[in-house]
Specification:
Blueprint: E1 5-8, H1 10-14, H2 23-37, E2 42-46, H3 52-61, E3 66-69, H4 71-78, H5 88-101, H6 112-143, H7 159-167, H8 171-175, H9 179-187, H10 195-211, H11 220-251, H12 255-261, H13 268-278, H14 287-293, E4 302-303, E5 306-307, H15 319-333, H16 339-350, H17 355-376
Parallel strand pairs: 1-2, 2-3
Antiparallel strand pairs: 4-5
Helix pairs in contact: 6-11, 6-13, 7-11, 9-10, 12-13, 13-15, 14-17, 15-17, 16-17
Amino acid sequence: MANWTLSIIPEVLAIGKPLRLSPAFPLQFYQEVEQVSGQPPAVIFESTGHYHEPVLQFLEDQAITYYVINPVISYEARKTSLRKVKTDKIDAFHLGELYYKEDLEVFQRKTEQYLNLRQLTRQHSALTNSYVEIKLQFQAALDQIFPEYHNVFSDLCGKLSLNTLLHYPTSADIQEVSQQTLAMEMHQFGAKRSYAWFLDKAAQLKAAADRNPFQHPVCHGHVVSIQMYIQMLFQYQEHLSQLQKEIDALAKTFEDYDLVQSVPGIGEKIGATIISEIGGINLFERPKQLAAYAGLDPSVFESGKYKASINRITKRGSSRLRQALYSAVQCGLAKNRNKKLIGFYDRKRNEGKPHKVAVIACANKLVHWIHAMLKRQEVFVDQS
């Protein structure tokens, strides 16, 4: 007898109350199907953001074997029909069809430790993007009342710069105090510098205030905006610092963390992102599988006698892993850090490949190196 399938649409279960997943549903239905068929049905559902997680947890609690389908695969399966029909019933039917058409493997969930690290690294990345947006808005607001301030501090969003601007948001505020008073107050903000350095910085501030084009009383709303943005920047810096400490502490519990960081160009942040997104090298038997998961595998297009000579990467895998690998390549190429990677990059450039194509090829090569390192538990050996 052919195996029975039970297809689940996670979005349907996630609407409103059903995610409580009481034993009456869907466990009762599962048991009824098992009684009729005489064998446990195959449970199939697609990965849909966070909606499928409670369903997955429920099935694991009940020790039910399940298969998780990549949304890209299920989307292509829905396109097999000429009619354009999109209903939950049809979607569930196509998921069942995939069980018979494809050689599906039982889903291997990442361990709780990997999931925690992935959540922290993704949260850090999202918070960093928001922090960058606030910095841009802060700089735009500063340009409207004190544009000359940009030339005083090398780190505009550093602690000393923000505290100084919080107390003296306009050029008129700086002109009203003496150079010595300004130097003493900046010294109290916590920067470990000599008093002579603070005097010189106060002189630069006074000169910038004299050059500032907005000498007339500025709009009070702009001042309020500057102070609000400064407070937000302080909060983001505090949260990012706390997140980074949590990431570092958790990442150090992984044996793969030090192995990945042995590659020149991969630091703590990139290394933590790579191992959290991979989720355990045992999930990937071959390096090409890991490259495909990162979306770095080349697409293929052939028709008749035509064979495409330009094949872009698929970009169908983990975008965060792909970005981390791309950043690792850029860091490895900078300042002659990774000689082995630089040698491979130069070969691609000598073949006539553009810079970005060569960098992507380096990222693909880096995936193969990382796969070999983690499988063999060996550190990276660079060229002498």
